[in-house]
Design a protein that fits this description.
This protein is an alpha/beta fold and 639 residues long. The protein contains 19 helices and 29 strands. The strands form nine sheets. Strands 5-4-17-16-18-19-20 form a seven-stranded mixed sheet, sandwiched between helices. A five-stranded parallel sheet has the order 7-6-8-11-12, sandwiched between helices. Helix 17 links the parallel strand 28 (534-543) and strand 29. The longest helix has 17 residues, at 87-103.
């Protein structure tokens, strides 16, 4: 089926289309009810089907003859450790852990919080929970005790799975005071904590009262896969909310499995036996969908990497992994490649490695700027494919359907909608807008399988956050436009669109232009209140390593050049007059720039410290710069 036929069939007859895709799975009980519409606007896929996600990812792959094929490759430059697990070996580890969890009282429907670094046990833990029908919630290792406590109280797990420490480029993070502190703060009391000892910083289990992972799990009776309903939850993933309370996105078992098989085959072009590497963390949706579940459900080998794109040990780290394991396709955030480009702009480290196995590169998570795309494409000689999705959708909304032969790239676009989605652009009043007109990006209901249909313990919040803004549509919260051929252009969150003297201007466009300056590594543009104009844009930018001599102060000259650049490319109407040089931009651990925090800071509004921030000290550095440059007198402060 070609793209246009598939897209139209999914649009016109979604039940028929997804019933066909569902036949690709080894159900315990195949569904006869494909799509149920509920009165509140939500819907359920494959409601009377039963299956087990772990069985599909491991047992069924072995039944297809892949038992001796590598399933999971672990590469940890921060510990100088490598390991390869075949499907047989991975299943044995999962069965054993599932048996231990069962012995600790975990059963179908129970919650388990996973607070682990990027180690094989993280993937094993997720699969073990899925095997039992337990609902896992992975919390990014290193999250503050307060944030972990909030998630424990919301998810109410029976067991917490953790490690003694996580390892970063320049430090070891002791997890034990974080976990212990969280459990003391939480109102919900867990039954057990299972802790994986790491030699870099072992924990005192007697003092903590935690169970030792190795001795507790060893020799446990292997647990069989438990049949669950397609609509039963597989996992909860918490994502930041505007209220400060995280939203627990709920992913079901059946729709998720169907969607993973479909998108891996048709959009990512994966075939059984391929070596796939998503350079992310299991704490994020990409880690769930494209490190653990998607590749294994597709019979692929997946790489789990405990390292960084740079400094582990250098900017050639990605290319080393590609060579060592024959990686066929690589998925990462643009931030990763900007970091590599910043330290190795001429690709000298890239040239050291044999990357012949690499067929293509996928990027997502934030806007892919044109200079980064061009540099990466020219350096590697491989197609670079952008795609757009959200934690809520669980899989790409827009992407090139490479499995269908669709590989067209349009600069600035995340490509067209994957069959199953209909992307529309709406005015604030909910009216469809014509091509090339910017507005609210929305998805026509029903959403395809795998997309969240509720929030854990808060269905009303789901309805108000996603379905009430534009009735009949899912409100993405992103702004952008479609061109005349249906290619989607995401310009950022709708609240990143600023109003300058009545003109709606995209800060994403301004960042795109700033990125063309040869000295700029990355930038962020936010709107600042102005009594005359309503809002004016303010730019913060980071320069490339070695762009200037250490004795130079490039800031004044660069500010003039960037102001002139925006005036030329956007126009004087933008009133872009300030661009400040900073050492770093504040980011989440997954690499997204925290523009909402910057926007509140420059407007003197205090804000909750984002739970996902990588290094809070960056905010203090930027606040000092803003005051020193007389841009503001009192910055907003994190609370």
């Amino acid at each position: 089926m070609n793209y246009r036929t598939a897209f139209q069939q999914a649009l016109d007859t979604p039940e028929t289309f997804w019933a066909e895709q569902a036949r690709d799975l080894a159900w315990f009980q195949p569904p006869s009810r494909i799509l149920d519409h509920l009165d509140d606007g939500t819907h359920r896929w494959f409601a009377d089907g039963t299956l087990n996600t772990c069985y599909l990812a491991l047992d069924h792959q072995i039944e297809q003859g892949r038992g001796d094929q590598p399933a999971l490759i672990y590469d940890s430059p921060v510990t100088d450790t490598r390991a390869v697990f075949t499907f047989h070996e991975l299943l044995a580890r999962v069965e054993e852990l599932a048996g231990a969890l069962s012995r600790l009282g975990v059963a179908k429907g129970d919650g388990v919080v996973i607070y682990l670094p990027m180690v094989p046990e993280a993937a094993i833990a997720m699969l073990a929970c899925a095997r039992l029908g337990a609902v896992h919630s992975v919390v990014f290792g290193g999250f503050a005790a307060h944030e972990l406590a909030i998630r424990v109280d919301d998810a109410k797990p029976k067991v917490v799975l953790t490690a003694s420490c996580g390892i970063e480029v320049d430090r070891v993070i002791d997890y034990t005071p974080l976990v212990d502190g969280a459990l003391k703060r939480a109102n919900h009391k867990v039954d057990h904590v299972l802790l994986l000892q790491r030699e870099q910083k072992p924990a005192d289990l007697d003092t903590l009262g935690f169970l030792d992972w190795q001795s507790t799990v060893a020799g446990s009776e292997p647990a069989p896969p438990v049949a669950v309903a397609a609509t039963d939850p597989l996992y909860i993933m918490y994502t930041s909310g505007t209220t400060g309370k995280p939203k627990g996105i709920v992913r079901d078992n059946g729709g998720h499995a169907v969607a993973m098989r479909y998108v891996c085959r048709e959009a990512l072009g994966l075939k059984a036996g391929d070596v796939w590497w998503a350079s992310s963390d299991v704490g994020w949706v990409v880690g769930h969908s494209l490190i653990v579940y998607g590749p294994l459900l597709s019979g692929c080998t997946t790489v789990l990497y405990e390292g960084k794109p740079v400094k582990t040990p250098d900017a050639g780290a990605f290319w080393r992994v590609v060579e060592d394991y024959g990686v066929n396709a690589l998925f990462a955030a643009p931030t990763a490649f900007r970091a590599i480009r910043k330290e190795d702009p001429d690709g000298k480290l890239f040239a050291r490695y044999d990357t012949a196995s690499l067929k293509c590169i996928f990027v997502a998570g934030e806007k892919l700027d044109t200079p980064t795309y061009t540099w990466l494409n020219q350096l590697t000689g491989r197609p670079v494919f952008d795609n757009w999705w959200q934690t809520e959708t669980g899989w790409p909304v827009t992407a090139p359907c490479t499995g269908m032969g669709e590989t067209e790239v349009r600069m600035g676009s995340t490509n067209r909608a994957v069959p199953g989605y209909q992307v529309v652009v709406l005015s604030p009043e909910g009216e469809p807008l014509p091509a090339n007109t910017e507005g609210d990006i929305a998805l026509r209901l029903p959403l395809p399988p795998g997309c969240a249909q509720t929030l854990w313990n808060d269905h009303e919040r789901y309805l108000s956050a996603y379905l009430q803004t534009h009735p009949g549509y899912y409100h993405s919260g992103d702004g952008g436009y479609l061109d005349e051929d249906g290619f989607v252009y995401i310009m950022g969150r709708t609240d990143d669109v600023i109003n300058v003297s009545g003109h709606r201007l995209s800060t994403g466009i301004m960042e795109e232009h700033i990125a063309t300056h040869p000295a700029v590594a990355e930038s962020a543009v936010v709107g600042m209140h102005d009594e005359v104009c309503g809002e004016v844009p303010v730019g913060l930018f980071v320069i490339k390593d070695g762009a200037f001599d250490d004795t130079d102060d490039p800031a004044p000259a660069l500010e003039k050049e960037l102001v002139a650049l925006i005036r030329e490319q956007v126009g004087a109407v933008a009133r872009f007059r300030r661009a400040l040089l900073v050492k770093r931009l504040p980011k989440t651990r997954s690499g997204k720039t925290l523009r909402a925090a910057l926007r509140k800071m420059v407007n003197g509004q205090d804000f909750p410290l984002p739970s996902t921030i990588d290094d809070p000290a960056i905010l203090d550095e930027i606040a000092t710069t803003l005051v020193a440059e007389n841009l503001i007198t009192r910055p907003g402060r994190p609370q």
